[in-house]
Amino acid sequence: MTGRTLTNDIPRVHPGAAWRSRRMSTWRLAWRNLWRNRRRTWLTAGGIAFAVWMLVFAMSMQDGSFGIMVDNVARLLTGHVQVQHDQFQDDPALEHTLTDVEALMTLAKGQRGVSAVLPRVQAFALASSGERSFGTQIVGVDFSREQAASSLPGMVVAGRYLQGPGEAFVGVGLARNLGLSPGDELVLLGTALEGGVAATVAEVVGLFDTGQPALDRAFVQIPLADFRTAWNLPENQVHVLAVVLDHVSRSPQVARTLAGPGRRVLEWTDLMAEARQTIELKRIGAQLFFAMIAIIVTFSVVNSFLMTVFERTPEFGMLMALGMRPGAIVRQLSGEAFWMCALGVLLGLSLSGALIGWLSGVGLPLPADAGEVLARYNMPDRMFPDFSWPAALIATLVMFAGTQLAAWISVLRVWRLQPASALRALE
Asked: Whole-model pTM above 0.85?
């Protein structure tokens, strides 16, 4: 048999296939090495799982509380999304109205997650009773729609909500200043659309208490038709379309759909500047807290890998004596760190997902002594978490980065390792 025939009989291995084979063997070996000390592996993975669970659960509870807060304010007054004339936000003049109201309401109602669309008109006027007068904001509403979607009708402290023409729903602060009670007459004077006098007389049928003094002493609701008649506003025009959603997360998509020429669409972040700032500050605090937890977990992983390096020093010395380079050992330990982190993250996400999924259905009960206050402001007596996908992603990335950093810090000793001195540890 010729040399050429022997050469042809030898199987050829593509360099890429050989590299992939070595890569797979490194990952497989790293996984097996992870279980050489099961107790240490589970303790370290448990620390990672606890950090992931704490961040995801805390942020999910926080997002749930933020959602309740935003939803309560949105249903009380602003809506999650508002559609206005493009100049109304800067100059709330009576003539800055939306004219294509029916088309906009139809478009908004067709969007996924929209619970209600509330047409509103508003103006500033002088509210009088007897010899007392105070400036206030008059809002004309479709009371049947408001009663179904707004939380303000549920804050009645005396009388009832609007049910027909010629009625007014007044805040307790304004009622106290004017000496009003249900059944009294309220005179409203303002400036009509063409510059004339807008005047109407309404019977006070109910008083509301929102817990916000600035609102309770300067806010009156009357039927939409009464407002249009008194202020000479055409029937097909409104100042604001307040869109109420079933979940605050849908506001960006709905806002994009309703945007168009001649109108401005505002999301809850634009309408509730104070609430947005409060949420941002609380999230920064939560992130700082998690950063501390991540640092503690990273140090625990460093300790775990330092123990691994010390225990396996003779093994590494033997591998280096057989020709393995330090870089290959470092890659193997990095693979072990990857698998350990993957195990901890998977465990943490599973636990947090199961717990949050259960609590999102049954809710977390709030203290019993807060029940009356919560009921007064139409807030639920249970906290419902909302799973935070950004928190899950951040926790995963931070834990993987931390464990890899811990592995590299721990294996710096491998680069300086001498095979002869490492093998002496076997003696």
From this structure: no
What are the DSSP calls for 153-187, one per residue?
Answer: GGGEEEE----STTEEEEEHHHHHHHT--TT-EEE
Q: CA-to-CA distance for 345 and 50, rounded, in angstroms?
A: 9
Q: Report helix, strand or coil for 99.
A: coil
Exposure class string for 20-33: b at 16+ Cβ within 10 A, else e: eeeeeeeeeebbeb
For residues 382 and 365, is the Cβ–Cβ distance under 8 A?
A: yes
d(CA 243, CA 8): 77
**């040399």: which residue's tokens?**
3
CA distance linking residue 268 with residue 78, whole number of Å:
8
Radius of gyration of the chain, Cα coordinates, nearest whole angstrom: 34
Question: Euclidean distance between the first and final Cα of the chain, in Å?
Answer: 51
CA dihedral (196, 177, 121, 155) in degrees, to 10, reads: -160
Residue type, 69: M
Q: How far is CA 233 from CA 227, 264, 286, 332, 401, in A?
A: 8, 20, 49, 76, 62
Tens digit of pLDDT per residue, the chain (427 long)? 444 444 444 444 444 444 344 555 777 888 888 888 888 888 888 888 988 888 888 888 888 888 888 888 888 888 999 999 999 988 888 999 998 888 899 999 999 989 999 999 999 999 999 888 999 999 999 999 999 898 899 889 999 999 999 999 999 999 999 999 999 999 999 988 887 889 999 999 999 998 888 889 999 999 999 999 999 998 889 999 999 998 888 899 999 999 888 899 999 888 888 778 888 888 888 778 888 877 887 777 777 777 777 777 777 767 777 677 767 777 788 888 889 889 999 999 999 999 988 888 887 776 655 555 555 555 666 778 888 888 888 888 888 888 888 777 767 666 666 666 655 555 4
Assigned token pair, 60: 């999910």
Distances (CA, A) of 55 to 32, 46, 287, 290, 353: 30, 14, 8, 6, 12
Contacting residues for 95 by C-beta, under 8 A, at least 6 apart = 193
Tokens of 235: 């029937």
Work out the angle between the directed axes of helices 313-321 and 273-311 (0-180°, nearest 10). 70
